[in-house]
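Intended use. Records like the one below are meant for learning the mapping from a protein sequence to its folded structure. Do not use them to infer anything beyond what is encoded.
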Amino acid sequence: MRRLLVLLALLAPVLALAAPARAGGWAVTYLDPVPATFQPGTSYTLGSWLLQHGNHPYGGAESDLKVGLRFTDGKRSLAFDAVKLKEPAHYATAVALPAGTWQVVGVQEWFAPFELGTLTVPGAFTAKPLPAEAKAAAADWLNGNGGKDPWGAVRPPGLGGKAPAAAAPAQPAAPAALAPVSPVAAAVEAPWWRSPYAGLLGVLAVGGLALLAVRRSRRQSL
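Structure written out for the chain above:
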C-alpha cells in the first residue's frame, strides 16, 4: 500500500503538467503561393506563416521558435532557416535544391515538424491537403473575434472571413511565373517528449527502478 501511495505522489505533478502541454500544443504552417516550377541550383524565396491552433500568432516570444523548411529525399536532408518578416507569424526562407524528389517539412519548434508536401526538382510542388481541424479552427477563431485579426492587407492565405481551402497541386508554367496555389497547411501535435504519456512512462520507469532497489537492499540486509 505504501508503495502505491509513493507512486501516486510521483505521478501527481506529472499529470498536473500534462494538461497544459496537451492544450494548445499544435500549430499550422501555411505557405504563400509558390513558384510554378523549380529548377536545380536556382534560388527561391518561399513565404510561410506559423499559426498556433491554425489561426493566430504564437502566444509566446517568436524569437523562441526555430522556423524554417527541411527537404529530404531518403538519402539527403537539407535544412534552410527562415527569417522573420514584419507581419506577425510571417517568415521567409531562401532555398536552393539539387535535382530530386523532396519531401518538404515545416520546422516549427517548439511545435513538432510536419510534412507539407512533395517537391520535384526540376518540376513542381504538390501540396498536402489542409486538415479539416485546421479549417474549423480558423473559422471558429475569426467568428469569435468578429472577423478581426492581427493582420492588414498582407495576411495568411485564406484567413479573411472564411476558413482556408485545401491546397491544390501547382500547374507547370514558366519558371518566372507564380502559380495560383492555394495555401498549404499541416496541423501539428505537441512534441512527443511534451506529451503526458511520455512523462507518465518516465515516472513509472523511475518508480520501478526504485522498487527494485528497495527489494535488493532488503535481500542484502537479510
